[in-house]
Amino acid sequence: MSDAPIVVHRASGTGGRRVTVRGRIMGLAHSDDHLIEFLRLAGLPDAWELLDDPTWVEWQGGPAHEYSVV
Length: 70
Prior knowledge:
Layout: E1 6-11, E2 17-21, E3 24-29, H1 32-41, E4 57-59
Parallel strand pairs: 1-4
Antiparallel strand pairs: 1-2, 2-3
C-alpha cells in the first residue's frame, strides 16, 4: 500500500477499473484516456506525466494500463 493520491483499483468482472483521487471516487476507467479525463476533472491537467510515477499513482490488483480481467 502506498500513499499515492491516485489509486487505480483492480479490474471489475465486467471490465474497467475504479479510479479514486485522494479517496474521492472519480468513475470507472476503461482506458488510459478515461483515466486522464478523470484526473483532468480532479484538477490535474498534466496527468499523462503522472501515470507511471508510483508517488502519484498506485495501480492495484493488476498491471498498469490494463483495464480488463485477464
